């Protein structure tokens, strides 16, 4: 397979799904162009890249669009072999995909329910989220067994990219929702430690600094 020559990411600074793709590309050392998408006024150029869902992120590689963040993460790892984000062992790869899907299908929808609700409904959503969080930590400890500061061991991988980005989002939720505690270090100490280690990576800080310029523009426009 020839190395791609032109890589372009369509995204939005407010989207954690897009941030995951930034992180994966930077962990791989892939040079790419970034196009900030105005979610309230999507261009024809962008809509042609994802006519079905019309959502960010979309990675365009040599003219071929790849939508949906989890699919993009797996594509990036398979396309650029340096600095692998997935282990070689087929069983571990399967387990990592399983728990990645668990985060997407179980945890993310409940996290949105937390921020969109209040009172007893919000309380129930928080309880459900923390239950899923505990299931995730127990499952990763049982199924993956890698030693190091990250889920994938000494170096971050796809689960770390997903969890680390989600961790930043959960901190934001805690800041804007008084009294809500989602990052419970007593309940999920290892995952909290992993997310803290991920937050200290240079690629995470550099991405945040780069995206901040678009956030500031958005705030000025509102």
How is this structure best described in words?
There is one protein chain. With 222 residues, this protein is an alpha+beta fold. The protein has helices at 16-28, 44-49, 69-79, 90-116, 119-143, 158-176, 189-199, 202-221, and strands at residues 7-11, 33-36, 58-61, 64-67. Helix 1 links the parallel strand 1 and strand 2 (33-36). Helix 6 packs across helix 7 (189-199). The longest helix has 27 residues, at 90-116. The radius of gyration is 18 Å and the shape is globular.
Features:
222 residues; alpha+beta; 8 helices; globular; disordered C terminus; cytoplasm
Provide a compact summary of the structure.
It is found in: Cytoplasm, Cytosol. The chain is of the alpha+beta class.
Query: Biggest sheet, open or closed, and with what strands and sense?
Result: 4 strands, mixed
The amount of helix comes to 55-70%
Q: Pick out the low-confidence regions.
A: 218-222
Give the beta-strand count: 4
Mean pLDDT, rounded to whole units? 95
- Number of DSSP helices? 8
Question: Reading side by side through the largest sheet, how are the strands ordered?
Answer: 2-1-3-4
Could you say which structural class the secondary elements and strand pairing correspond to?
alpha+beta
Strand proportion, as a percent range, falls in: 5-15%
Question: What is the end-to-end distance?
Answer: 45 Å
